[in-house]
Write a structure and sequence with these properties.
The chain has 83 residues and is of the alpha+beta class. It has one domain. Helix content is 70%, strand content 14%. The chain contains 2 helices and 2 strands, in the order H-E-E-H. The chain has a two-stranded antiparallel sheet with strand order 1-2. A hairpin with a 5-residue loop joins strand 1 and strand 2.
Protein backbone atom coordinates (compact mmCIF):
# COMPACT_ATOMS: atom_id res chain seq x y z
CA UNK A 1 0.00 0.00 0.00
CA UNK A 2 2.93 2.37 0.60
CA UNK A 3 3.85 2.04 -3.07
CA UNK A 4 0.64 3.75 -4.28
CA UNK A 5 1.50 7.28 -3.02
CA UNK A 6 4.98 7.01 -4.54
CA UNK A 7 3.61 5.83 -7.86
CA UNK A 8 1.00 8.59 -7.90
CA UNK A 9 3.65 11.21 -7.12
CA UNK A 10 5.90 10.01 -9.94
CA UNK A 11 3.00 9.83 -12.39
CA UNK A 12 1.99 13.39 -11.53
CA UNK A 13 5.58 14.57 -11.96
CA UNK A 14 5.53 13.02 -15.43
CA UNK A 15 2.03 14.19 -16.40
CA UNK A 16 2.36 17.78 -15.16
CA UNK A 17 4.90 18.92 -17.78
CA UNK A 18 2.83 17.38 -20.56
CA UNK A 19 -0.31 19.19 -19.43
CA UNK A 20 1.56 22.46 -18.94
CA UNK A 21 3.24 22.18 -22.34
CA UNK A 22 -0.06 21.43 -24.10
CA UNK A 23 -2.03 24.20 -22.40
CA UNK A 24 0.64 26.88 -22.72
CA UNK A 25 0.86 26.71 -26.50
CA UNK A 26 -1.99 29.17 -27.18
CA UNK A 27 -0.62 31.79 -24.77
CA UNK A 28 0.77 34.98 -26.32
CA UNK A 29 4.50 35.77 -26.44
CA UNK A 30 4.03 38.24 -23.55
CA UNK A 31 2.13 36.67 -20.63
CA UNK A 32 0.57 38.75 -17.86
CA UNK A 33 1.86 37.48 -14.51
CA UNK A 34 0.74 40.08 -12.02
CA UNK A 35 -2.46 42.05 -11.70
CA UNK A 36 -2.99 45.25 -9.77
CA UNK A 37 -6.03 47.05 -8.47
CA UNK A 38 -9.00 46.75 -10.77
CA UNK A 39 -7.71 43.58 -12.39
CA UNK A 40 -5.34 45.37 -14.76
CA UNK A 41 -2.12 43.59 -15.62
CA UNK A 42 1.00 45.34 -14.36
CA UNK A 43 3.61 42.59 -14.65
CA UNK A 44 4.58 40.39 -17.59
CA UNK A 45 7.07 37.74 -18.66
CA UNK A 46 7.92 36.06 -21.92
CA UNK A 47 6.15 32.89 -22.95
CA UNK A 48 9.37 30.89 -22.56
CA UNK A 49 10.05 32.47 -19.17
CA UNK A 50 6.54 31.59 -18.06
CA UNK A 51 6.98 28.01 -19.23
CA UNK A 52 10.27 27.59 -17.35
CA UNK A 53 8.84 29.17 -14.19
CA UNK A 54 5.67 27.06 -14.17
CA UNK A 55 7.55 23.84 -14.92
CA UNK A 56 10.01 24.56 -12.11
CA UNK A 57 7.17 25.37 -9.75
CA UNK A 58 5.18 22.23 -10.53
CA UNK A 59 7.99 19.69 -11.02
CA UNK A 60 11.28 20.80 -9.49
CA UNK A 61 9.88 22.30 -6.29
CA UNK A 62 7.75 19.26 -5.27
CA UNK A 63 10.58 16.86 -6.15
CA UNK A 64 13.02 18.94 -4.08
CA UNK A 65 10.66 19.08 -1.09
CA UNK A 66 10.07 15.32 -1.17
CA UNK A 67 13.80 14.63 -1.50
CA UNK A 68 14.51 16.98 1.42
CA UNK A 69 11.88 15.28 3.57
CA UNK A 70 13.20 11.81 2.74
CA UNK A 71 16.73 12.95 3.59
CA UNK A 72 15.54 14.44 6.90
CA UNK A 73 13.65 11.26 7.79
CA UNK A 74 16.70 9.10 7.02
CA UNK A 75 18.89 11.40 9.10
CA UNK A 76 16.40 11.32 11.98
CA UNK A 77 16.20 7.51 11.83
CA UNK A 78 19.98 7.22 11.86
CA UNK A 79 20.32 9.47 14.93
CA UNK A 80 17.43 7.74 16.68
CA UNK A 81 19.05 4.32 16.27
CA UNK A 82 22.46 5.62 17.28
CA UNK A 83 21.15 6.89 20.62
Amino acid sequence: MAMLPRLLFVLLLIAAPAVIWATSAPLPERVATHFGRGGLANGWMTHDGYLVFILALTVVLPAFVVALLLWALALWARFRHAA
